[in-house]
Design goal:
Elements lengths: L15 H20 L3 E5 L10 E4 L4 H10 L5 E9 L6 E8 L6 E8 L5 E2 L8 H12 L3 E2 L38 H4 L1
Parallel strand pairs: 2-5, 6-7
Antiparallel strand pairs: 1-2, 3-4, 4-5
C-alpha cells in the first residue's frame, strides 16, 4: 500500500504517525543497527494498519531488545504483555507493548514461539511482568524460562487446557463440585 491510500488508525491522540513518525524511524534504525539480523520484520503505521510500530525480534534476542528499548530508547513502562494463537508455525506470537513517559510514544515488540517452546522471562527487567507472564501461561500454555512462580492466575488450578488457544472447544466447560482447599481460618 502506498502512503497516500492508507488511512491513519483512529486514536484518541490523532494521527500518531504524523506526531511520532520521525522519532519511530530513528528508534527503528537504532534497533536495526544494534540487533541486525535478529530483527526479523518491522511494520510501520505508514505501511501497515497499526497504530504504533511493530518490531518482530527473534526469541533469542527479545530480552536484549526490550532491555535496549528500556534503557536507550527510554521505553520505561511495560504497559502490556499478551499472546496470540496464530494457528500456524510458529504457533504463538508474544506481544510486548511499551510506553515512554519521556517521549509519550508507544512501540510494540513481538516474538514468535513454537508449541512447547519456552521464552525467557522479563521479570528481571520489569517485575510487573510476573503476573502478565502467568496470565499468558494460563490462557495459552506458553512457558517462560526463569519465571519465579509460573502457575495459573485466572483459571482454577485443576483446569485442564488453555482457554484462549484457538483449538480449545467453545463449550469446554469444566465443573468442579467440591472445594479443593478450604481455609477455615479465613472463615472464622
Amino acid at each position: 500500500m502506498s502512503q497516500n491510500t492508507l488511512s491513519p488508525i483512529a486514536t484518541n491522540g490523532g494521527d500518531l504517525w504524523a506526531k511520532f513518525g520521525e522519532t519511530w524511524k530513528s528508534q527503528i534504525e537504532a534497533l536495526k543497527q544494534q540487533f541486525g539480523e535478529r530483527i526479523e520484520e518491522v511494520k510501520l503505521p505508514s505501511e501497515y494498519p497499526t497504530d504504533v510500530p511493530i518490531v518482530y525480534v527473534k526469541k533469542e534476542a527479545i530480552i536484549d531488545a526490550l532491555g535496549f528499548a528500556r534503557s536507550t530508547l527510554e521505553y520505561g513502562f511495560l504497559s502490556d504483555l499478551t499472546a496470540t494463537d496464530e494457528e500456524s508455525e510458529p504457533r504463538f506470537e508474544l506481544v510486548y507493548n511499551l510506553f515512554s513517559h519521556t517521549k509519550f510514544t508507544r512501540i510494540r515488540f513481538k516474538t514468535r514461539v513454537r508449541e512447547n517452546e519456552e521464552c525467557p522471562t522479563l521479570v528481571n527487567l520489569w517485575p510487573g511482568a510476573n503476573w502478565q507472564e502467568r496470565e499468558v501461561f494460563d490462557m495459552f500454555g506458553v512457558r517462560f524460562t526463569g519465571h519465579p512462580d509460573l502457575r495459573r492466575i485466572l483459571m482454577d488450578e485443576r483446569w485442564v487446557g488453555h482457554p484462549l488457544r484457538k483449538d480449545y472447544p467453545l463449550r469446554g466447560y469444566q465443573v468442579f463440585t467440591e472445594a479443593q482447599h478450604i481455609h477455615t481460618e479465613l472463615l472464622e
